[in-house]
Amino acid sequence: MPRFEIDVDPCDHLTADAIGKPGQRVFYLQAFQDQRTITVIIEKAQLNSMAIGIEQFLSQLDEQNPDLSEASGDYVEEVMRINPPVDPLFRVGEIGLGYDKDRDMVVLFVKELLTEEDDPETAAVVRFWATRTQVRMMARWGVEVASRGRTICPQCAQPEEPGGHFCPKKNGRLH
Hints:
This protein is α+β, with helices and mostly antiparallel strands. Helices cover 23% and strands 28% of the residues. It has three helices and seven strands; from the N terminus they run ββββααβββα. The protein has helices at residues 44-64, 77-80, 132-147, and strands at 5-8, 13-19, 26-33, 36-42, 92-100, 105-112, 125-130. The strands form two sheets. The protein has a four-stranded mixed β-sheet with strand order 1-7-6-5. A hairpin with a 4-residue loop joins strand 5 and strand 6. The longest helix is centred in the first third of the chain and has 21 residues, at 44-64. The chain starts with a strand and ends in a 28-residue tail after the last helix. The model has no long low-confidence stretch (mean pLDDT 90).
């Protein structure tokens, strides 16, 4: 049985953001509901994958449900910034998406990252219930946040440090 399960249903606001300098940033997923703030830590790669997955998921929903209105992805940066308190419940290991057609709500669920010794059944779970527009705005803002970090090496696709980096495609030569 999970340590705990939380349903943020519905989210008043959903966002992803990073705190810190490029190369040392910590990425967060955060939702608000009434006076409650729920925050979890995610990796930059998870944020990028989640954003791509959300766009694909919403495209499939549009194809399967042509009568749905289009979900806007327009956001205001100041509104999308993460807000205190930044007190994460856990680090995310698994992310998934679902859709409730009757409510026209997307559920973004996250599961806690566990160690090998932990029982997978004990992973904490948070389900963020949000509109299609809220999810698309968060995904598009997340792409923007992730792109503001270190530049990516065109050879090996790894982040570059300001002074160059060890590039395996160039036999480890710094550039």
